[in-house]
Amino acid sequence: MAAYKLVVLSEPMPGREDEYNRWYNEVHLREVVATPGFVSAQRFKLNSPMSGQYPHQYLAIYDVETESAEAVLAALYAAAEPGKMNISTALNVETAIAGLFEPISAVVSASASATA
């Protein structure tokens, strides 16, 4: 079974940050992880920009395990059809971006780097 990361960058609608965070943390993460192939999820907020432009302050990373990336995305799209998944109007859907990433290297840990 292959492992992937679904990466989502998004923003709240102006003036609705608390509502957006509450919905994302309490509703949306659980709904997405309930989709077949999704294993876990975690959100992050930008702390310290290092370089470049950051139009999005929020990041969600979903761990996905599946034999077929196309099938898991099809299941997510089906789950997100109107009336099936709760999509908050506090989410700025016009600016959100997402992508399913596949690993192209082994994980390198600090302890492995120190002994190399």
Q: What is the CATH T-level topology?
A: Alpha-Beta Plaits
What's the number of structural domains? 1
The beta-strand count equals 4
Count every helix, treating DSSP H or I runs of 4 or more residues as helices.
Answer: 3
Coarse morphology: globular
Radius of gyration: 16 Å
**CATH class category:** Alpha Beta
Give the assembly state of these chains: single chain
> Strand portion, in percent?
25-35%
Instruction: Please give the share of residues in helix.
Output: 25-40%
CATH-defined architecture: 2-Layer Sandwich
List low-pLDDT spans.
none
Strand order of the largest sheet: 2-3-1-4
Distance between the termini: 29 Å
> Largest sheet, described in full?
4 strands, antiparallel
User: How do the SSEs run, as a string of H and E?
Assistant: EHEEHEH
What is the mean pLDDT? 94
Helix/strand class: alpha+beta
Describe the fold and architecture:
It is a single chain. The chain has 116 residues and is of the alpha+beta class. It has one domain: Alpha-Beta Plaits, CATH 3.30.70.100. 29% of the residues lie in helices and 27% in strands. It is built from three helices and four strands, in the order βαββαβα. A four-stranded antiparallel sheet has the order 2-3-1-4. The radius of gyration is 16 Å and the shape is globular.
